[in-house]
């Protein structure tokens, strides 16, 4: 596979994860998506964790993904990397419903039927030529693809680096070469987490931690990639114009058919739940539809029509309230399984941040049917709520 521009290799991890300041001097405010009116348009429902019902309204104009560098076409075009995944697919579907022509790019085909107005392209973001061709006439790139958050792949450091750092480097360079003026990057709240609770943190009081303080390689590589994206804001585009970038840092994502968190406790296999860390710790979650809305608004915030207010910014994205992870999961496990849920709690600090606990679960009565399940010792069980202080 080929990469363009500066090489992305493991030694990039030695760079400092310091977000470059926004030279525009703009500061934006928020966590309550319904607290402000940003213009006339169709109200967008904001979903909340408790019931998934509409609990607030965010009045925003239905955004158009327009590039200031290309002649306006009848239909705007967006590319979503990681478009075969739970979130990326829903983002692409939402964009298509707004009239945008969408390309979903992923190594793996979506589990769901690709809707009208959406094209699925099976490809690797580490392959520069494939990515370059996919981005022809694209107006905005939503870079959601990543590797190594959970499962056995988190132990493959070179793979995690090549996707999270090398792939992001390719996306940035392709945007510049293809004259794509907007790029929205899906980061993670883990970039500010170093194993200690964060109380009422925001984008100013909870900066990226030094790279050697991250508790896992995934978070470390995401921090490096985030720095690259912010640093790329303002880069010159081929043919004229500037690249505008911003970063979104979601907490744990949930919603219908989400499998990363619930699959981890094997609810569908009627297995039990293991809890790691402080049983009283609280954390943030974000409903997938809220995260979709945040990405659409971020793309809009990078446009000249909105004063490029999101340029070079990083935003925490969550539902606005923290919950106890175990209290939230156990009732769900109990309702979904004939086996009563029970909890084994251990202290992750005593285990060590570089370890991954290997558990063997019987999946059927057959002794041959066993699976290895890797549980990452990561931030959620020790992290308190991060409260957003900015508004896109």
TrEMBL record:
The keyword Aminoacyl-tRNA synthetase does not apply. The keyword Oxidoreductase applies. Residues 24-45 are annotated as: Disordered. Transmembrane segments: none annotated. GO terms for biological process: steroid biosynthetic process. InterPro entries: 3Beta_OHSteriod_DH/Estase (IPR002225), Lipid_A_modif_metabolic_enz (IPR050177), NAD(P)-bd_dom_sf (IPR036291). It comes from the Eukaryota. GO terms for molecular function: oxidoreductase activity, acting on the CH-OH group of donors, NAD or NADP as acceptor. Residues 79-336 form the 3-beta hydroxysteroid dehydrogenase/isomerase domain. Keywords: Oxidoreductase. This is Short chain dehydrogenase/reductase family 42E, member 2. The lineage of its organism: Eukaryota, Metazoa, Chordata, Craniata, Vertebrata.
